[in-house]
Amino acid sequence: MMIDHWPLFGLRVRTPRLELRLPAENELAELADVAAAGVHEPGRRPFLTPWTDGTPADRARQVVQGHWSALGRWTPQDWTLQLVAFLDGRPVGAQATRAGDFAALREASSWSWLGLAHQGRGLGTQMRAAALHLLFAGLGATDVTSASFLDNPAPLAISGRLGYRPDGITRDLLHGRVVVSQRLRLTRDDWERVDRPPVTIEGLEPCLPLFGIGSEVTPAPPPGR
């Protein structure tokens, strides 16, 4: 079975409303349809990812190729995990985490997207909470970083609720114009102090070598300690 060769297919991260896992091929196609229907309002550009520069078909292909690329380029020293968020068994978006030299640094970054039809329902917070629990409680991370445009309040609000602190800015070019992002950092200590949704993990232990670590992960305290 594929799970014998790639145990990440058995990884499950669950919140009260969502299940995050790798998709089957037909589920990946459905996720691509979610992206094709829109990730943000027309006329806005809240991400560096060019979601609106092409056609809906372009967005769908980008999701499929990104998923395949992340799996194909995976090494224990440099990995990107793109889990799909399922609500009532249907994909609604994706939550990604990335790290280089994680075994030594114990630091990762995260980003996500949610289909436009599913926004404003608290799902983004649960997706991020799931990723943070996997990184801190499951993999023993010490720091997780994120970044959002200064004029994109939704992800900044999620970060604030989950305990992130400002960590400087980044400047990028977007269609020839300079855009500024707020960098954010969440330490394990701050994560442990904040109230957060309950999260469970299934199937992680066989995956640990793929993340470059062994089974000596320090357990985290329960939410809202």
List the helices and strands and how they pair.
Layout: H1 2-5, E1 12-14, E2 18-21, H2 25-36, H3 56-72, E3 78-87, E4 90-100, H4 102-105, E5 107-114, H5 123-138, E6 143-149, H6 153-161, E7 165-174, E8 177-187, H7 188-193, E9 200-202
Parallel strand pairs: 5-6
Antiparallel strand pairs: 1-2, 1-9, 2-3, 3-4, 4-5, 6-8, 7-8
Helix pairs in contact: 2-3
Looking at this protein, list some descriptive labels.
single chain, 225 residues, alpha+beta, Aminopeptidase, nine-stranded mixed β-sheet, 7 helices, 30% helix, 30% strand, globular
Plain-language structure description:
The protein has helices at 2-5, 25-36, 56-72, 102-105, 123-138, 153-161, 188-193, and strands at 12-14, 18-21, 78-87, 90-100, 107-114, 143-149, 165-174, 177-187, 200-202. The chain is of the alpha+beta class and 225 residues long. The chain has a single domain, classed as Aminopeptidase (3-Layer(aba) Sandwich), CATH 3.40.630.30. It has a nine-stranded mixed beta sheet, sandwiched between helices. 32% of the residues are buried.
Summed up, the helix count is 7
Instruction: Tell me the series of helices and strands, N- to C-terminal.
Output: HEEHHEEHEHEHEEHE
Question: What is the name of the CATH architecture?
Answer: 3-Layer(aba) Sandwich
CATH fold type: Aminopeptidase
Helix % is 25-40%
The shape, in one word, is globular
Number of domains: 1
Structural class estimated from helices and strands: alpha+beta
The N- and C-terminal alpha carbons lie at a distance of 40 Å
